[in-house]
Amino acid sequence: MIRIGIAEDQALFRKGIVSLLNSFHNMEVVEEAADGQEIVNRYKELHAAQEALPDITILDLNMPVLDGIKATVQLKELFPQLKIIIISSFDDQDIVVHLYEKGANAYLDKNAEPEEVEEAINAVFTNDFFFNKAAKNALEDASIDTPNIIILNAEDALSERELEVLKYICYANTTEEIANIMSLSKRTVDGHRSKLMQKTSSKNTTSLVLFALKAKLVNISELKVNLF
Known about the structure:
The protein is α/β, with parallel strands linked by helices. The protein contains 10 helices and 5 strands, in the order βαβαβαβαβαααααα.
């Protein structure tokens, strides 16, 4: 089961999405909150009690007390491995790119179909990121507007093997799939992934993909994109 936490200030909408998520065969909502601060506090309590945090957290972008972006920043600082999906009725491209830059693993429109919600959660759980058409368009425009100015120090230059692993990560291949494709052990692939994170100062897979796009190491058209 994929354990999910959700913060949404509109009670009716929150109850509706909780009901939807619980209807999926492999998902269960285990934490609910009415704003970002409430879910941050709750996760601190769970951590202090040495209890497991949800696998994925869904945050509304606009909430009182602490909005989705600020909550994402705080949660990522406290729990770097936490996977976060932002939901919003706004699809402004600058906002979408900003969400990913701040550590969100996926963006969903509040009008998304149930099938897209389910696929997004499964994708984030398995691959750490999910791009729908809105995200693809936003990232494509951002990559076009961003000059190829990312330069790594000599000691941080990516090897050919690391570049190959990076591309497969961007293609949404799992560690096991990359290991099979490249005839490597999963431990070796994980080692390359860790090295890539270190060299590019990436905090998670999503920021690693963003780095690859900005550095023109992969083309947005090559990424796995959900077509909803």
